[in-house]
Design brief:
The structure is a single chain. With 160 residues, the chain is an alpha/beta fold. It folds into two domains: 71 residues, Helix Hairpins (Orthogonal Bundle); 66 residues, Transcription elongation factor, GreA/GreB, C-terminal domain (Chitinase A, domain 3, Roll), CATH 3.10.50. It is built from three helices and seven strands, in the order βααββββαββ. It is elongated and about 70 Å long.
Length: 160
Amino acid sequence: MHRIHITPQGYQALKDELDHLWYVERPEITRSVSEAAAQGDRSENAEYIYGKKRLREIDRRVRFLRNRMEMLDVVHQRPVRTDRVYFSAWVAISALEHEEELLFRIVGPDEINPKRNWFSYQAPMARALLGRAVGDEVWIDRPAGRALFEVVAIHYDPPS
């Protein structure tokens, strides 16, 4: 089975979502569906119809999360060489052709968050940088076109 890397924080977020769906949301929806069913004609009862639909969505997501969590490999420790770019690193790169600097984190595919600049280790930009050190130059294919970047900083603790 192919193992997928995830940070401890990412794993906890998935576990929290699963727990919330199973122990909080699903029982609430089940109770409201039972109450709606007791009112009689289910074919025209919007609350009953919506509740059943929401239960199917919750069950589908719960199945996905349970299966996914079995495939995850939680990476608890830093790499031996923290002077190189590896999984869970915060990386600062600077474009050599024009004034552009990016700070992002390399995470698992279940943790991607463009607003926080968290990119999957499977993404082309992250793959191009894995194993690189500060001062290394690397060509990166981006939607805006190919550009040459220099690795400016590598951290394994959140930037302050």
